[in-house]
Structures
1.
Amino acid sequence: MSKVAIMVTSGYEESETMIIVDFLRRLQIEATTFSLTDNLYVTGMQKITCKCDVLFNEAVDDYDMVFLPGGRPGGANLSADERVIKLIQRFNEQGKYVVAMCSGTTVLEQASIINGRKVTGCHGYEDKLLSGKFVKEVVVADENLITSIGPATPFPMVYKMAEVLGVDPSDVKEKTLYNFAKGK
């Protein structure tokens, strides 16, 4: 079973984080929330507090994919955390999947792992993701790097995550009425 590590820090974007965790688990993909604070309880951008599964630790290196949600100041807090920068640099060097949404995409620039690859991010981020080829698409996958725009896009994002991990999301799309809503 594939494993996804979700990085959670103060000011995380709740919808991006919780929908990704929820749907990864529905898809039978192991999804573990790692608190980057000194507490399992972390408060997000909208003042919703979640209890993470574990505190950040070296077990994260055993995962197949790392996910960086956005948020304010969540994205900035991720960028300022040297453990996160080193983690995504290691994942990138090993060809493991590095996935980011919204302001979480700025961490990729901070870690210098974009390097000419196609990326997307929140509107206006073409000025922040300068080392990549910014495209205005909902979800962009380029090699082991997957990016998405923001709080309205976690559903197509999580389905892309599943697909690259070799999991067919068709059944979950149908059961959760994603197909009925035509992905909107």
2.
Amino acid sequence: MSKYRRKRSLDRIVQTRRSTNILFVGIEGGSRTSSKEAKYLDMFHGFNKNVQVRVYPCDEHKSAPLHVLDHLKNKLKEEILQEGDEAWLVIDRDRYGSHLPEVARRCNDANVRLALSNPCFEYWLLLHLEDPQAHLQSCGDVKPVLSAALDRIDTSEGFESIYIDRFQTAVDRAERRDTASDRWPQQNGSRVYQLVKRIVRS
């Protein structure tokens, strides 16, 4: 059960409990088949019998964090919620750094947890493969490093086989980096590890 106080979006709690809790996750634009975030989170389908993950991609032309948050909040209005359900926002810092204080404030008001990657989600994927020491300023810096790391391993079995057996390594690396109490990582890092820990927690 969440230790955080329930606010607005998750205030509508039903009396009849289902057997699982649901994590409602808003992600940036793209279809479920094209979005790396959606493909990654879909890996955990059935991983924990006590948790379901429902992913809501925003329209690919409305991927700014505030649009993604509004889309998630609208989807939550259609759901029947129970105690223990959680809402998460998975976004990048890369292009929208100036928006983040407002995003963080609105997430707090709606009791939506912020899983931000700095500079982008690809950095979270990179942490599965290596622990980069050089600062990577933008997603344009991250992508060639990720591509080179993928070239060094067997990727013939596809996306899931690359990442599912390495997620704990990524969690450990991201958690070691996350030493500040800021609302999102100010340096290279990712709080997607917090969402993954929640998914796999018994």
3.
Amino acid sequence: MATKVKAKIEKTVARRGGSSYITKWLVRLGLLSLFVSACAWLDTIKDRWYVFEPTSLNKLANEAIAANPNNTRGMISHIVANLTSHYPSTLIALNPRQDEWVFSNAGGAMGAMYIIHASITEYLIIFGTPLGTEGHTGLHTADDYFNILVGEQWAFAPGSLEMERYGPGDVHHLPRATAKQYKMHEGCFALEYARGWIPLMLPFGLADILTSTLDFPTFYHTSRITAREIFNNLLVGKI
């Protein structure tokens, strides 16, 4: 009799354990579905948080080129001065520290960048190198607009038999979820603008440090500056 009761109890416990396991996974799947749905909804409204316009930035880049021929540093100063005077600090936070440059190793390419703006949905940087570099653009959750200030950039997409060529004043638009090979020739610098989900681009921008260069001071400063600028923008309500 005792044996039958024990077996019945064990059977009941096993049945409840199986039900509990199924319930846990149903809850997890439900939460995952809610998360995916929320992300999809946020993606449809992210444009309401954009402040910059690609056409305006390209116009500004061309104005900087015209006002400072053969003077890259002058172009950068022109761009930063224009942005800080045009956009109030109550709308968006900008980084005016033009000496705050860090190395950028991503997709096999190497250069240096100055982060003018970073938020959840936008970033604006100066990127380039006097030496030249080439690599993979990465596959991103944001549209990228590369406004050439000096030098020349070449690009190539799979299936194309001819290269794309971009010179001063040109803009190279890389739509989200697309990738190319690109090359920046000696002395090429650009005003780069991205709009989309910026935090999801960070692994691409930092992975080479962890797997190749082991330049941890650059990892620290890149993370510190990016986090600082995103936080400063959140303080003024800029997502």
